[in-house]
Write a structure and sequence with these properties.
It is elongated, with a radius of gyration of 42 Å. The chain starts with 10 loop residues before the first helix and ends in a 10-residue tail after the last strand. The strands form 2 sheets. It has a 5-stranded mixed β-sheet with strand order 2-4-5-7-6, covered by helices on one side. A two-stranded antiparallel ribbon has the order 1-3. By secondary structure, it is α+β, with helices and mostly antiparallel strands. Helix 1 (11-44) runs antiparallel to helix 3 and helix 6 runs parallel beside helix 7 (284-300). The protein has 8 helices and 7 strands; from the N terminus they run αααααβαββαββαββ.
Length: 397
């Protein structure tokens, strides 16, 4: 469906049409009133004009008799009344013609002025829309409109929008700070608890009947530590303060393959690496986490004898890191939910459902985009797109 079809004219066009229509209607009213007033004035002075036209002239010698040709004599004999009617029609007709021409010209000028004025008025409204669109597609709330110009309804809207962003920024900052501090504070008692469990086990001082319970408690402790580490990573990924340094997504992909080689071998998943040069300005540790999370997701949500392919490269001014894996068939409508925190899908694994959420948060902080599409034969392809450094071009070889 067309964006600007009938009934969907943009606001600027509607304002121009309304202004032009109002001017044209009022102009037609003035034109009609002027024409009627002129006619009334001329009619009111009919006697004066006809008397002036019919005043006696000085006597002249009798002319020689002239024979009048047969036929109608209207064209020859003209009375003062008929002369006045001819004069009135000529004046009013000429007045109407000139008024219509002037009204047409001024209506066109009014349309142009209305188009220009609406553009000036709506320009700041476009700024609000563009800022809202940028903020809605990213994770940063530090942008503000700070509209200038007269304090009208549009500036009031911009100030209200900025106040709303201030409140949202404070709220999200407090939430992230709480998550980071709570996770950090939980690490110490969990480390003490793990040590208290591991020492008796290592020294053989745990009775055999209690050993299974102590091992389960130790496994639960390890899972909680992993969850806290994931929460800390997510909290850090959602902050805007990044240590941006020149790095390469290819290095992040190689590090992820090395770290997960043993796990992939144990799961029976063959990992293939195609690491082309992909230079980017970013946080190296967070970008390594992106590659690690994507590859871990590809390995853990796969089947035995499956494959996982991790690829990096550059296209124009954009660099990418892509991980594609085999696995269960995934309906397209379920793909967006995979990036929600703690979502594990129908195939519950050993993770916490934070891997793809962390990937999306890190990518958004780096002003990038995550594109996920199900594979036809089962599995998932996830591509991370980031702005490249120096146009993303490969170095001269």
């Amino acid at each position: 469906m067309s964006r600007f079809g009938p009934g969907r004219l943009p606001l600027r066009g509607r304002l121009t049409l309304v202004t032009t229509a109002v001017f044209a209607v009022l102009g037609c009213g003035v034109l009609a009133l002027n024409w009627l007033s002129s006619r009334q004035l001329i009619e009111a002075n009919r006697d004066l004009i006809t008397q002036a036209a019919g005043a006696p002239e000085p006597p002249l010698p009798d002319p020689a008799p002239v024979e009048v040709p047969p036929g109608p004599t209207d064209a020859v004999l003209t009375t003062p009344a008929r002369a006045f009617d001819h004069f009135q029609n000529a004046i009013l007709g000429d007045l109407l013609t000139r008024s219509v021409l002037l009204l047409t010209v001024f209506t066109a000028l009014a349309a142009l002025l209305a188009w220009w004025a609406s553009h000036r008025s709506l320009h700041r409204l476009h700024q609000v829309t563009a800022a809202a669109r940028r903020i809605s597609t990213g994770s940063s709330l530090d942008e503000r409109l700070a509209l200038d110009g007269p304090y009208d309804e549009i500036r009031e809207l911009g100030d209200t929008f900025d106040a709303m962003l201030d409140r949202l920024d404070r709220s999200f900052t407090a939430q992230r700070s709480f998550t980071a501090h709570a996770s950090h504070e939980l690490r110490t008692p969990l480390t003490v608890l793990r040590t208290a469990l591991e020492i008796p086990l290592a020294q053989g001082r745990v009775p055999d009947d209690l050993r299974p319970s102590v091992l389960r408690a130790l496994d639960a402790n390890v899972r909680i530590e992993r969850l806290i580490a994931a929460l800390l990573t997510l909290a850090r990924a959602e902050t805007a303060a990044l240590a941006l340094r020149p790095t390469d997504l290819a290095d992040a992909a190689r590090a992820a393959v090395r770290e997960l080689a043993e796990e992939a071998s144990g799961a029976g998943v063959r990992v293939t690496l195609d690491a082309a040069h992909a230079p980017v300005d970013g946080d190296p540790s967070l970008l390594r986490q992106v590659a690690l999370n994507l590859l871990a997701n590809a390995v853990r949500h796969n089947h035995r004898d499956g494959t996982a392919v991790i690829t990096t490269g550059a296209t124009g001014g954009t660099v990418f890191l892509e991980v594609s894996n085999t696995g269960p068939v995934l309906p397209p409508q379920e793909v967006p939910a995979l990036f929600a925190p703690f979502h594990q899908g129908r195939e519950r694994g050993s993770g916490f459902g934070l891997g793809l959420a962390v990937v999306q948060a890190i990518t958004a902080t780096h002003h990038g985009e995550v594109v996920a599409t199900p594979r036809a034969g089962g599995g998932l392809t996830v591509r991370v797109l980031l702005p490249g450094r120096n146009g993303g071009a490969s170095p001269p070889g």
